[in-house]
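Title: Comparing notes on inverse folding

I've been comparing how different people in this forum approach sequence design from structure. To keep things fair, I'm posting one structure and asking everyone to reply with a full sequence. Here's the target:
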């Protein structure tokens, strides 16, 4: 049966889903709302609009046109927010550079993305000095600093950021164009080979913003976002657009607080002084905040924190709740823009003891509107929603990347069978909650069975002596692999517990929890530190390569 198309009249406005449309509501309802950088610089949304126009005109004067790429190297700042809008609104592409990659990898990503203009905070001048000679396409450098004076320049400067804006007009006629035009690109923090370029269109970013708004706005009591919230990211703006939340905060007209580089004492101060109520971060950043001396006596009541990037340990969820935080998990990955699901609790769940709430808060959650999320077997058949049957998590939704930049083979593998493959293993319970149990590459294959490293980490992490833990699989002649827990102890317990005692504790907890009998084969090794990626995730590949090198 043929599908009948609805025809619009010649004069009707065919509304494209472009990033510029996200500015309409805040400018209409909250033009005087505040945006602050570290509590030092403050301006309104009205000024934000003017600075976006000035930045677009300034970049245009440097030769930036539609389709060209403008790269940004900065910590979380008002400047980054301006780039989030001005660059794609011109029809250009914003490359958010991961400043925690090695200089060689940063050079690779800039060349691979064919960046035309590079904006750089003076903190990264040493990196630029090292790589400038190897940059193949960058024509102009725009520099800026938070210091009183500009340090020695690492390359010829086309313009200084604030001077460029001051010399440019506030009026820029941002055009309409195809909503499927590329808006952003950034590079994954993969642990093997060169980083892969991920890209997103205007349409995808707008729909992701609306999907997050619908999910968070639909929450009843817990994890709800509203126009009186105060937003501060604690996820780098170079990583998946700070999970897309600067776009959401702007669309809603929230007060926004940008902390620059993440320092626990600064974050604690900004939360108190600016009355921050909504943030997001990876567990390692939350752990850094919870264990910092300035947080010891602070009451964080009213601070809603979405946790993602890696699994939330239940022990950490309990500790955060005791500090008054409304902690809950979100799930996604670089390739998914990123948010796919959020772990909201019902009103009845909120009456449960903290320990039982933590189990739900640490789950991967319920899918956002428009998200078709499934757990499938190797034949792509969906497994039962019984909370036990496991398989790979695959997904469809309008905001997923269509592939990797200039990497057709990897793109085909990502989308095999018409669903995006996350490479995560999980299950879905009868209530629709997804629980990711491990990464396919991190699951421990012991005695012919799969043992979840995340589940073992949860149990070991509840011991009072454990500061951090990562469980990896190590080769074993009899069992194929055997779980090894790499444990960082709290300083006060360094001489109070042995590896053997913690192993016995873990073995008992594993048996009590009914985990695979092969989990009790767990070994324990005390280490000085755990290896992490540039965005704070556990780098288990490197830890597996030489666990002995980490021992205390």
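Reply #1:
Here's my take.
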């Amino acid at each position: 049966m043929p599908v009948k198309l609805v025809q619009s009249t010649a004069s009707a406005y065919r509304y494209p889903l472009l990033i510029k449309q996200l500015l309409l509501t805040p400018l209409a309802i909250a033009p005087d709302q505040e945006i602050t950088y570290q509590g030092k610089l403050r301006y309104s949304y009205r000024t934000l609009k003017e600075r976006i126009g000035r930045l677009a005109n300034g970049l245009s004067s440097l030769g930036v046109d539609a389709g060209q790429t403008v790269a940004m190297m900065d910590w979380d700042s008002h400047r980054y927010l301006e780039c989030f809008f001005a660059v794609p609104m011109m029809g250009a592409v914003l490359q958010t550079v991961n400043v925690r990659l090695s200089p060689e990898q940063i050079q690779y990503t800039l060349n691979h993305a064919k960046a035309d203009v590079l904006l750089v905070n003076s903190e990264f001048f040493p990196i630029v000095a090292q790589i400038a000679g190897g940059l193949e396409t960058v024509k102009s450098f725009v520099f800026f600093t938070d210091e009183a004076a500009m340090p020695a320049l690492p390359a010829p400067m086309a313009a200084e950021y604030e001077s460029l804006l001051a010399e440019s007009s506030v009026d820029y006629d941002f055009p309409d164009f195809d909503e499927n035009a590329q808006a952003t690109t950034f590079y994954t923090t993969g642990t093997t080979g060169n980083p892969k370029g991920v890209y997103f269109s205007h349409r995808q970013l707008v729909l992701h913003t609306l999907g997050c708004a619908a999910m968070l706005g639909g929450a009843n009591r817990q994890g709800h976002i509203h126009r009186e919230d105060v937003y501060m990211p604690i996820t780098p703006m170079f990583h998946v657009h700070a999970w897309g939340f600067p776009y959401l905060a702007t669309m809603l007209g929230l007060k926004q607080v940008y902390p620059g580089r993440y320092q626990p004492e600064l974050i604690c101060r900004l939360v108190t002084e600016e009355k921050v109520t909504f943030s997001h971060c990876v567990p390692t950043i939350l752990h850094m905040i919870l264990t910092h001396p300035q947080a010891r006596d602070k009451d964080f009541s009213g601070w809603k924190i979405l946790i993602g990037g890696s699994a939330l340990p239940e022990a950490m969820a309990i500790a955060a709740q005791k500090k008054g935080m409304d902690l809950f998990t979100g799930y996604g990955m670089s390739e998914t823009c990123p948010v796919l699901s959020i772990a909201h609790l019902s009103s009845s769940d909120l009456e449960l003891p903290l320990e039982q709430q933590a189990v739900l808060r640490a789950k991967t959650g319920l899918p956002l509107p428009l998200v078709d999320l499934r757990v499938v077997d190797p034949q792509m058949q969906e497994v039962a929603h019984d909370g036990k049957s496991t398989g790979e998590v695959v997904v469809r939704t309008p905001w997923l990347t269509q592939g990797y930049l200039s990497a057709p083979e990897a793109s085909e593998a990502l989308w095999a069978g018409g669903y995006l493959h996350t490479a995560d293993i999980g299950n879905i319970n009868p209530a629709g909650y997804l629980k990711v149990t491990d990464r396919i590459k991190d699951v421990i294959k012991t005695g012919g069975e799969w043992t979840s490293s995340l589940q073992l980490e949860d149990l070991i992490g509840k011991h009072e002596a454990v500061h951090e833990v990562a469980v990896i699989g190590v080769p074993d002649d009899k069992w194929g692999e055997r779980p090894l827990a790499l444990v960082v102890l709290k300083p006060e317990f360094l001489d109070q517990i042995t590896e053997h005692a913690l192993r016995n504790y873990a073995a008992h907890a594993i048996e009590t929890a009914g985990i695979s009998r092969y989990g009790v084969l767990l070994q324990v090794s005390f280490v000085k530190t755990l290896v992490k990626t540039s965005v704070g995730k556990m780098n288990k590949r490197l830890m597996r390569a030489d666990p002995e090198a980490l021992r205390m």
